[in-house]
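Suppose you are handed only these lines of text.
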Amino acid sequence: MLELKDVCFTIKKDGEDVNLVDKVNIQIPRGHFMAIVGPSGCGKTTLLKTIAGLNPESAGALYWDGRNLSEEGDLDPSEIGYVPQFSVAYDPLTVDESVEAATRLRVKTRDMEELDQRIDRVLEETGLTTIADRHVKVLSGGQKRRLGLAMELVSDPKLLLCDEVTSGLDPRSEREIVRLLHDLSRREGRIVLSVTHSLAHLELYDSILVLHEGRVAYHGPPDQMNHYFSVHDTEEVYPKLASQTSDRWQSSWMKHRGPYYTKLDRNRTKLVDSGGLHLPADPEPVPTQEVTDEKEQAAKEKPESEKIRTPGFFAQFTTLLSRRWRIFFRDRGQVFLQLAILLCFPVLVTLFKDNALGQIANLSETRLGNVMQDFQEQQVVRQDQVRVGSAVSGIVMFQVILLALMASNNSAREIAGERSIFEKEKFGGLRPTAYLASKIAFLACLVLAQSLWMAVFVNLFAPFRGGAGGFESHIIFLLLVNGGMTAICLGISALMRTAEQASLLSIYLVGFQLPLSGAVLALPDSVEGFTRPFISAYWAWSGSIGALEPKVLEAVKTVVDTSLSTREACLYTLGFHIAAGLIAAWVGTRRHQWD
Ligand SMILES: Nc1ncnc2c1ncn2[C@@H]1O[C@H](COP(=O)(O)OP(=O)(O)OP(=O)(O)O)[C@@H](O)[C@H]1O
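From them, the structure of the protein bound to adenosine-5'-triphosphate can be written out as follows.
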């Protein structure tokens, strides 16, 4: 039994406490199907989230089979299913793949056979078997809602919470979904609570909870609702609600609820007697106030071997990583963009190769004695140095900036773009560390491919003019700048509320790299000291320039006023950027961000 006792959810508005859910008292037995209805903004979703534990109750308490959930711990993620208003499936995947991923993330199965059985059962229960190989993007609204339900049913939740799962559907699909929810509540004593705007098909529910400004105005059998509100038609209930204040409705309900609860009990007894409701073998748990014997309570729990257990870190990590690659390869636009960037950006760099390949004349060991000739010789050397130094420095900076651009394209939307799905999966037991690790593994592959190809391709046409180990050093700095910017943009993606915000901030970050690196124009000392630590492009450029052979290094120094840093300083700073980005991503993924 689910029981709410004086449950409130309070927020601060203009310094004042406002109860979005106000002293809700209800008892819902196992195998019960309840609709939560009420005018828009009356707090239906807020109440559902409070029951789910997404909004911690500000006062009162919730009990599950007599267990105080706030004191003795929430329900296990596998015991509760929450179907939100938004789609929780990825468009490029098929129905079968979506349900399989949901199962692998939520349920630890013994073997493939058990996994397949579970998937098949859920597909059958939700009527999706015949369209199991269809892609999510081509599903109808009703089929998407069924899929959302299927992805929750994989863990056999005892409590299924549905938020507006029928909104926007045609009347036939709406009835089918309500009928499906009704049937789901008839199995294994599952409680199904459904928030809905619609007052159609109310006869399929066991009880209707009418909310008004966060307060209970009615909770009783569907066929008694019109009588209680003294209306002829259900459609007249909402206008009637507006006729008096919510606290009057609340106190009126408290006064008159007795007979309605008696009717609910009678309906339930009839249902059980007629065999229309199959409760689990366990005896129906007694209400909280009657729970005295802890041993008796423990006996009602499923044996350990039958309990659904959440898969470990590694299992979730591999499921997420393989799903990410599958989504990547199915999205042709994304693959094409990544390939175009990977191949074209290095080509762009090689357009500037000619000057970088030029020779730098040597100054004679001895002075010629002729001032004019000495001057002309120095001029020639100086011109070579300017030409070669500018080109070499420019090419390195161009590589660095293009890799930074690729980095922002890699990760700016990676988390923010799927935040709602991630939050939903986190609620279902996904470990944020497994999620983050899968993102890092996926992005590391992109970073490796992009950086190595950039270094090797450009080197084919404009060989890096490094000393011993210079090219290897250059590769490391290209990897580090791409890795650092990818990590920072991933951090931004995890911290921002929307994908648009994350993309914009990441693009600004890349845009400022070139002017603030000092590689083009030296910055004023006051600005440089402040900005330099944060500019990855400077450290990668400086590290690579430091790996040039001495003569070319001298040439670069003649054209750039900005001082170079030691190799170690560049390595450590870029390493720090990677660490900072990953820490930000870790903090962001742990944060609760369910709108
Ligand atoms: N965290 C929050 N902070 C401030 N206001 C909130 C918060 N959550 C909900 N609200 C406000 O509380 C009210 C109830 O919101 P809720 O989404 O629960 O209503 P609802 O009955 O589900 O509405 P609808 O049927 O339109 O979806 C709304 O006015 C909403 O703006």
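What can we learn from it? Strands lie at 2-13, 16-28, 33-37, 59-64, 67-68, 80-83, 159-163, 191-195, 207-212, 215-220. The CA atoms of residues 77 and 114 lie 20 Å apart.
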